[in-house]
Amino acid sequence: MGLPWMPLALAAFLAALLWPCAVRADGQLELPSQAGIGAGTGNFQVPTCFTDFSPPDIMRYWYTDAQVLSLSGGTDTGYGQELRASMRNVAATFSNQEESNFLTTTDEDMVNILASIIVLHSRGWRSSKAALQAMSTDDFRNTIIAELTSSGASIEGVQALSTREIADIAMQCPTAPQLQLSASSVHRRAAEVVPTTLALVSLTVSLVCILHS
Fold first, then answer.
1. 44 and 103 co-located in one domain
2. E-state strands within the chain
3. Which residue range is the domain that position 200 belongs to?
4. Secretion signal: which residues (predicted)?
5. Same domain, 141 and 210
6. What is the Cα gyration radius of the chain?
7. How far apart are CA 92 and CA 186, in angstroms?
8. Does 101 share its domain with 143?
9. No. of H helices and E strands in the chain?
């Protein structure tokens, strides 16, 4: 028997995928703040590796290829103040900081900030716009580190990595650095493994004795 909700779910997905970008009365493109994160504006492609991302690359999460090309001045390789202004707007939209705070932020750091937003949203660690708007850009990195170290990774090892490397790890990029376990995690896992190993050895010995009795 088919699942009655499947056609509805597929229709909703296609509608979201094909939804045109909203345009304000003054003819300007609606910014992500109007539609929510990644909804109705971008390519709907969540990156897994950020290492070589340029500003146009990162903006494709919120804008379509054609829009990014327009913001970049009609070229795939160059980009100017219009794209940078859009990056600042996205960062301000999804943080507790003003757009003016990012006027002197480098392109590299802007990509790092936007990559952090994508990671927090797509991993479900801060999945609402309201949750992101309560955070500073420093909070973004620290939250990702906290999530990664909650599974036993060494906090010192994670903190030593660049923001893009941390983002790659969070998104399970194949070329991401390998995390080192903390000493306490190693000891805890050893404490879990040893009793299990002893129990298996005891069971094996018992079975051998039974077979030879």
1. yes
2. none
3. 183-213
4. 1-25
5. no
6. 23
7. 40
8. yes
9. 11, 0
- pLDDT band per the 50, 70, 90 thresholds, residue 17: very low
Instruction: Give the Å distances, CA to CA, from 20 to 9, 14, 39, 128.
Output: 19, 12, 10, 22
Task: Determine the residue type at 78.
Answer: G
Specify the 3-state DSSP secondary structure of 69: helix
Q: Are residues 146 and 199 in the same domain?
A: no
Are residues 92 and 52 located together in one domain of the fold?
A: yes
**Hunting for tokens 């941390």 — which residue is that?**
166
In a domain, 26, yes or no: yes
Q: What's the pLDDT tens digit per position in 169-213? A: 999 999 999 887 654 433 333 344 445 545 554 555 556 556 666
Burial 137-160 (b: 16+ CB within 10 A, else e): bebbbebbbebbbeeebbeebbee
Structure-token pair, residue 117: 């937003």
Structure tokens at 102: 């990012």
Shared domain check, 141 and 120: yes
